[in-house]
Design brief:
2 copies of one chain form a homodimer.
Chain A (H helix, E strand, L loop, with lengths): L1 E7 L2 E7 L5 H7 L18 E6 L2 E3 L7 E2 L4 E3 L3 E3 L3 E4 L2 H4 L6 E3 L2 H19 L6 E6 L11 H13 L4 E4 H13 L3 E8 L5 E7 L7 E7 L3 E8 L4 E9 L9 H8 L4 H25 L6 E8 L1 H8 L21 E2 L2 H4 L8 E4 L9 H10 L8 E5 L3 E7 L4 E7 L19 E7 L5 E5 L7 E2 L1 H13 L18 E3 L5 E6 L1 H4 L5 E4 H23 L10 E5 L8 H6 L11 E5 L1 H11 L1 H13 L1 E2 L8 H8 L19
Parallel strand pairs in A: 1-8, 11-13, 14-17, 17-19, 20-29, 22-31, 23-25, 29-30
Antiparallel strand pairs in A: 1-2, 3-6, 3-8, 4-5, 4-7, 9-16, 10-12, 12-13, 14-15, 15-16, 20-21, 21-22, 23-24, 26-27, 27-28
Helix pairs in contact in A: 3-15, 6-7, 10-15, 10-16, 13-17, 15-16
């Protein structure tokens, strides 16, 4: 065993390594998380480290078989043969991508508030946490009840409950807290179903009940909002890439990784330490709060993400008969420490319940946020995530299915794709000279293309005849904006680096288009099959609610032209943003929403597409722009063909 | 800051130290716990370490002001001035004393069993933990309930309960466990007061409910027994010194230490890591079990020890109006992780309830084990611990008080004192030549004197006229067995090293006798005051039960002659051993005993001796052998005076 000393921007760690061990693996073992989206295949070129001392053995052919002091090299491409000192540059560490914090509350506050009020109007309201300010009698020789008993005596009277449970940490705080505040304290508590009260926090006497964090853990992205529990106001919103992405882009690859060696543990800690906790810290920092102020935590995620977050073996989810380890989550006792969350140790944790292997808490949260069950008319919720999920229902029934769309809607597996954050091209038009004109989120220089931009771009490439129905560039059209690589794969230059003074061209390749077509085909065909399984058609729908992190400004016309959505009256479509996060937020601020989700999960019927006859045919037909049955999409008829 | 490298027998740690820092403190900060009963005063000479490299500054006058490489020195007596390498020898580390494991179950099994049966006959029986073996239906595409829901569905039917809580760790185990056992598993659960069931363990299908550990945390000693929860059988019994002892011999000194710097944390971790956990490991090892097999843990301790074990600030216990942070413990939620116990993470933890600042769970456990409340006649329980506790009561009432006896009964603060374990002199007679004849526990060479031996020894010294009523040696008696040191303090040689081939003489000094007289005076006078507060006398007692780790063979006659116990009919005395541990055991094996203790605690009246008029007079009168009022002890009249 050799010592490998790893110099980090603010820290130095030393770890033991065996001769022949892969350096990337050694660094991961040391808890140093490198950005390696290809997971060590040597293709992404991102896991660059600097060799300060010692020599390594190269695993892939290079100029030399060994590399020595001072060289920059890819950690995944070499193995340890002697003691080393390596420096990991800051940019190599940025594993979860930068956090995008939305500071301007006018952008999000109204949205959350209106959904919260709408839910309250329909279902009423109940808080998870109550706060009681108690003035206890000061003890005397005659009234010498212990601090805990004194508190519970007073609490029982104030809250009208018989049984109280107090955690040992609260008991630890109590002696000083009481005496420093003249025996007046505030108690934050939650009422258990059986009427027992559990004290979550005991603190100096102020009425404020504390803060909550609602999270949506998506396969590709993690989003969170910080909530003032006194009034339900959202104080900040932030998102980042799910750090698990480097271990696999979709749920199937994650499951496979989880079942190998230490994989489950790596995935569990990756999403918590590198995605959720950084988001919590960023949100808290922005609002001047500490992790300890967070006493309520709500999370919505698909079934696989929920399993991985809880550290529960997910492999049986993908093996017939596709059995989750858990779905209904109300009877799971889970603490912040169980998950490694950097919040108050006693925080109440709410997990949105799942329905089946591939329909998770994100969709039960989404249904709640979309108000799908509150109308008699048939409505559909389409969640454009990596795991595309669709719900068809009304107040009488709800049926759901899921399809593997891949990360294309969120910019994943697209050469210049990115999430819908500042710098993303969110809408595109192509002019008569085959040149793209676009709008960038935040008005800055373009950095990539987000989901809504991709829809526009592909619709425009098709409209102008640059690509055909299969998504291939037509070589007969002569334009400098389409170029071909050595293998003959075409790419369209959306933003040339010279023109926009950016580090590299922003472009779209035929492979990117393929990935996007597969995503949109998966969603459209799943929606068709879900409807036809009940003998219905798109025309029977009163409303389609579209959710997902695809961007706020989807051009509906273009989305129909490429065959993502059916050609219905535009009034029938509503874009509701990240419905999973909104549902997670609702659950956080209203106990009735938590209960509603549990009920919704129990009442939902799940359609397993993979065993449904006709789904593959529908998928194949939808794998064109817009579809083999062009009559379904009359608006696309004017496209150049 | 300098690096101090600490070489331990099986490990090496490095810690940073500032110039001028005391080396003992540096080592403690590094988590190295040294045997330092004088807590760094430089008087006990036990914190010896070897200086391998570097020089230190001596804090106390020596031949030189600094010490250099290779020297053996007292860690408490020097400070750091440069980087050091020190070796800590194994014997310096033996902080909690050796563990005394009782392997011969015939010595203890019958005792526990008879108390268990007696309690059951009077109060009935209920287990804390139930076990159910469940055969679940194997899942299919049509019956695709999740693993957790499948388990709880089956469990609800089998156990007849509505609400089930399952910890996330159990959920983590479930997927493989079910599939490896044909969907047949055993569930260990406890029923909460509201009827909810909490699953503590899910395991391969065998009916065995697991194992429990009952502990008595005394101020000086910690004792534990390992229990098979299937039948309540005790598999092993062990005891060791409370490692907190090095931070102070009695509860007042512990409280003072707890309130300084990191003291509370040091005390909490000392008793858990160095006393309780080693006992658990030793007991488990002896029975071939793992810590994970321990699913139930019961602890009885005095109020201060309970506070320190829980890591709760104890300072207000000693300040008027003497308010504990907690007494009734049924509403405190505490986990193995909260305390750092090396048992199953989900183990149920039972804490014996306290009555007041200085009457703790040890006494409510003791009252339960002594069956004091089940008779109409007045009985008294005397617990001869460091904190001497006395209960007077019958089925109608119970009154209790506590006195600070110090550790003398357990051999503490006695030059050659030791606990009642193998090697201890447990009974003594002095012959006509003033030579001691004694019996040693285990029949081996004498190593020290335990409580019962001290009673005999002092009674015999008095009987033979070697000491007077004040415990001073009479210089007029000429014997080689009494010698005087340079300050004129006399000592009696019980076992000369040459005669018994032992490393050093075993002796008793006048200071030792003083300490013992104070202990016996505190107990006797407390008993008197407790009786007189109710207008009663010793003659009104039908029975006196004597508890404590003083030894199994107290010579009652001698105990009366020295004025420890009143001169009553010997039939009225019963010696019941460690009643706190027995009560802790009862609570472990019978939920009704846990409830009985809670009730007993609530019904007990506490008499605060320190404010009771007349107590000091009684104490002063009792501080003689046997007492200023010799008529109370007629048997002592024949002593030579």
């Amino acid at each position: 065993m050799f010592d490998v000393t790893v110099k980090l921007p603010h820290d130095t760690v030393t770890v033991k390594a065996a001769a022949g061990e892969n350096l990337l693996q050694v660094l991961r073992t040391a808890g140093v998380q490198l950005d390696a989206p290809c997971n060590g295949n040597g293709t992404c070129g991102k896991c660059r480290v600097k060799l300060e001392k010692g020599r390594v053995k190269r695993l892939r052919p290079g100029r030399q078989d060994t590399a020595g002091g001072g060289e920059l090299l890819l950690a995944c491409s070499c193995s340890v043969t002697e003691p080393l000192v390596v420096t990991v540059p800051g940019e190599t560490l940025l594993a979860c991508g930068s956090i995008c914090l939305e500071r301007d509350s006018s952008i999000f506050a109204g949205r959350y508030d209106s959904v919260k009020k709408a839910f309250e109007a329909l279902h009423g309201r109940e808080n998870h946490l109550q706060t009681a300010v108690l003035q206890l009698d000061e003890p005397t020789l005659d009234d010498n009840l212990s601090d805990v008993d004194r508190l519970t005596r007073s609490f029982r009277l104030a809250a009208g409950c018989d049984r109280v449970i107090i955690n040992v940490e609260q008991a630890r705080k109590l002696p000083h807290l009481l005496r420093e505040n003249g025996f007046k304290v505030a108690v934050v508590y939650s009422r258990l179903p059986d009427g027992t009260s559990r004290l979550l926090d005991v603190k100096a006497p102020r009425e404020h009940p504390g803060y909550g964090i609602a999270v949506d853990v998506g396969t590709t992205s993690v989003a969170a909002c910080l909530v003032d529990l006194e009034n339900g106001r959202v104080l900040g919103e932030a998102a980042c890439t799910n750090a698990q992405s480097r271990y696999g882009a979709d749920v199937i690859n994650r499951i496979i990784f989880a079942t190998k060696g230490d994989g489950l543990h790596l995935l569990q800690t990756a999403v918590v330490r590198e995605s959720i906790n950084p988001l919590i810290r960023e949100l808290c920092l922005h609002s001047g709060l500490r992790g300890d102020d967070i006493v309520l935590f709500s999370v919505a995620a698909n079934t696989v993400m929920t399993h991985l977050l809880l550290g529960v073996w997910p492999d049986f989810l993908r093996k017939e008969p596709y059995i989750p380890a858990l779905t209904a989550t109300e009877n799971i006792a889970v603490t912040a420490a169980d998950l490694g969350l950097c919040i108050n140790k006693n925080a109440l944790i709410l997990l949105a319940p799942s329905v089946a292997s591939y329909v998770g808490g994100d969709i039960t949260a989404g249904v709640t946020a979309a108000f799908l069950r509150e109308t008699e008319k048939n409505s559909m919720l389409i969640d454009l995530g990596t795991n595309g999920e669709i719900v068809l229902g009304n107040s009488e029934f709800a049926m759901t299915c899921a399809c593997s769309a891949g990360p294309a809607f969120e910019g994943g597996e697209i050469s210049c794709g990115m999430r819908a954050v500042a710098g993303a091209i969110e809408s595109v038009a192509i002019d008569g000279t085959y040149t793209a004109r676009f709008k960038v989120i935040g008005g800055q220089k373009p950095a990539g293309i987000c989901g809504s931009g991709l829809i526009d771009l592909i619709a425009e490439l098709k409209r102008t005849g640059l690509i055909d129905a299969r998504g291939r560039f037509r070589k007969e059209i002569n334009t400098a904006n389409v170029v071909y690589d050595a293998y003959g794969v075409g790419r369209y230059i959306v933003a040339a680096k010279e023109r926009y003074d950016i580090p590299a061209d922003i472009y779209l390749t035929e492979i990117d288009i393929d990935n996007f077509i597969r995503a949109k085909a998966a969603v459209y065909s799943a929606a068709c099959v879900l409807l036809s399984s009940l003998g219905l058609d798109f025309d029977d729908l009163a409303e389609i609610k579209v959710a997902g992190g695809i961007g706020n400004h989807i051009n509906l016309d273009n989305a129909v032209r490429i065959g993502l959505f059916p050609a219905l009256n535009p009034d029938k479509f509503t874009f509701i943003g990240n419905s999973s996060l909104t549902g997670s937020y609702l659950s956080l601020v209203n106990k009735k929403a938590t209960a509603f989700m549990q009920q919704a999960a129990q009442q939902m019927t799940y359609l397993e597409l993979s065993v449904y006859p006709g789904y593959m045919d529908e998928f194949v037909s939808a794998s064109f722009i817009p579809h083999t049955d062009s009559r379904r999409f009359p608006s696309a008829a004017s496209d150049r063909s």
